[in-house]
Amino acid sequence: MPKIYNTPKRSIVVKTRMTDDEYADFTERTRFCGISPSEFIRRAIDDAVIKPIITISPINEKLLSAVGTLTAQLSKIGMNINQIALFLNERGTPYNSLSGDVRAAIADLADLKYEILQKVGDAIGDVQTLKL
User: Fold this and answer.
1) Cα–Cα distance list, 74 to 68, 70, 83 (Å)
2) What does the domain layout of the chain look like in residue ranges?
3) How far apart are CA 38 and CA 29, in angstroms?
4) How confident is the model at residue 18 (pLDDT cuts 50, 70, 90)?
């Protein structure tokens, strides 16, 4: 009478190569645990915690540095615009001299956007970035 297993039907076979030392360690672990090599691998997959390796190339470091600097500048400009808007809201009356400051701040933001796109394009070598 054939043995009945209470496990799902598995049809995919995975093969790997090992050194003599790796295979000796593998067989010792399966023997110690008292389970088959297949069951050992399935349990290892279920319990495995694999952290991805993130590699930062010189291009990425240059890009991150440029974007960080430009982001700080953008934050300062944003704070200035918020101060202008707060002043206008407190006074209730728009002043002509302040509207010029707001326009200048908006122009600075547009210039900064162009500079960011240019730096990203330079870092990754994509001239299409400038068209964003």
Assistant:
1) 10, 6, 14
2) 1-50, 58-131
3) 12
4) very high
8 is written with which tokens?
Answer: 């799902």
**φ, ψ of residue 55 in degrees (nearest 5):** -105, 130
pLDDT of residue 105: 79
The tokens for 31 are 């023997």
What is the rounded CA–CA span in Å between residue 70 and residue 67? 5
CB neighbours (10 Å) of residue 79? 10
pLDDT of 94 reads 57
In the chain, what percentage of residues exceed pLDDT 90?
Answer: 10
Q: For every residue of the chain, which 3-state class applies, written as one string?
A: CCCCCCCCCCCCCCCCCCCHHHHHHHHHHHHHHCCCHHHHHHHHHHHCCCCCCCCCCHHHHHHHHHHHHHHHHHHHHHHHHHHHHHHHHHHCCCCHHHHHHHHHHHHHHHHHHHHHHHHHHHHHCCHHHHHC
Task: Give mean pLDDT, residues 13-38.
Answer: 91
pLDDT on residue 57: 59
Is 77 in contact with 112 (CB distance < 8 Å)? yes
